[in-house]
Automatic annotation (TrEMBL):
Domain of life (superkingdom): Bacteria
Name used for this protein in its record: cyclic-guanylate-specific phosphodiesterase
Record domain EAL: where: 23-275
Length: 275
């Protein structure tokens, strides 16, 4: 056993070290990226289903690395969440998105809501509401033009403190949306207690419409439930006309997805959707 242990040790060490080194290197690059302003926001439109009107957009972060070009958040958000870098990065995202929203407003573009993703780490800050208020104040974006996207795991099972934070954010006048709805641990009882404005149906339930009957049933149920609770409901990942038709028939208020537009830089967004 001793012999085997030693072999195992020798066998795995170089590999583990390589992975750890890679992580450390990436972590260092991410810190530098934030200092060097290498992150950019792309904006993806959200449309009201029955009128077809543009109602807002979701800000999605990308890393414009000088070495590798545009890097998707799937590749770096998890590490920034582990290391805590997501807190300053998330604040940068919020400030940039609010600044952009205000710029569009000043240019006389139609009213749109800017949705920003919050991470669990940001949500653990006791002074989050104060920080959000300060950014709204600094950028001049009216609070009701900001929508904060939270996930179920961030709010379920965390007790009174979370309810207080949600109410504090709500009191600012911003909207609250539950992202990836249906994929996490959700309690319908909680939904009634939380000052939530919107449920966002996860793209996993949209992708296989109209082939997958279970997904259609789930999407229809979420829409019906949201409507009964007087919440707005938006579907994400809408790629086809058939998906849009189904969601519209079910009474889904809004849609977001490649069918309408991919996430794109702010200037392209303005050229494409503000006319
Ligand atoms: P998410 O919040 O669920 O964002 C939706 C993702 O689906 C985006 O990927 C978007 O580009 C993609 N998407 C939109 N429409 C379609 C479609 O029709 N079909 C398909 N297949 N995909 C579509 P993205 O931009 O790569 O972001 C991935 C995730 O990274 C986000 O998922 C979010 O969890 C996280 N993320 C992005 N930006 C931020 C941020 O600023 N802060 C935090 N905390 N997380 C972020
Ligand atoms: Ca989101
Ligand atoms: Ca989502
Ligand atoms: Ca997602």
């Amino acid at each position: 056993a001793k012999e085997q242990g030693r072999n195992t040790y020798r066998f795995y060490t170089p590999k583990l070290t390589a992975a750890a080194n890679e992580r450390l290197a990436l972590e260092a690059r991410l810190h530098r990226a934030l200092a060097n302003d290498e992150f950019v926001l792309h904006y993806q439109p959200q449309f009201e289903t029955d009128s077809g009107a543009l109602i807002g957009c979701e800000a999605l972060v990308r890393w414009h690395s000088p070495e590798e070009g545009m890097i998707s958040p799937a590749r770096f958000i998890p590490l920034t969440e582990e290391t805590g870098l997501i807190v300053p990065l998330g604040e940068w995202v919020l400030r940039s998105a609010c600044t952009q929203g205000r710029r569009w407003m000043d240019a006389g573009h139609p009213e749109v809501t800017i949705a920003v993703n919050l991470s669990g780490r940001q949500f653990q800050q006791h002074d989050l509401a104060r920080r959000v208020a300060a950014i709204l104040d600094e950028t001049g974006l009216p609070a009701d033009r900001l929508k904060l996207e939270l996930t179920e795991s961030m709010i379920m099972g965390h007790g009174e403190q979370v309810v207080e934070l949600l109410h504090a954010l709500k009191t600012l006048g911003s909207r609250l949306s539950i992202d990836d709805f249906g994929t996490g641990y959700s309690s319908l009882a909680y939904l009634k207690r939380f000052p939530i404005d919107e449920l966002k149906i996860d793209q996993g339930f949209v992708r296989d419409i109209p082939q997958d009957e279970n997904d259609m049933e789930i999407a229809a149920t979420i829409i019906a439930m949201a409507r009964n609770l007087n919440l707005k409901v938006i579907a994400e990942g809408v790629e086809t006309r058939a998906q849009l038709d189904f969601l519209t028939r079910q009474g889904c208020h809004a849609c977001q997805g490649y069918l309408f537009g991919r996430p794109m830089p702010a200037d392209e967004f303005a050229r494409t959707f503000f006319r």
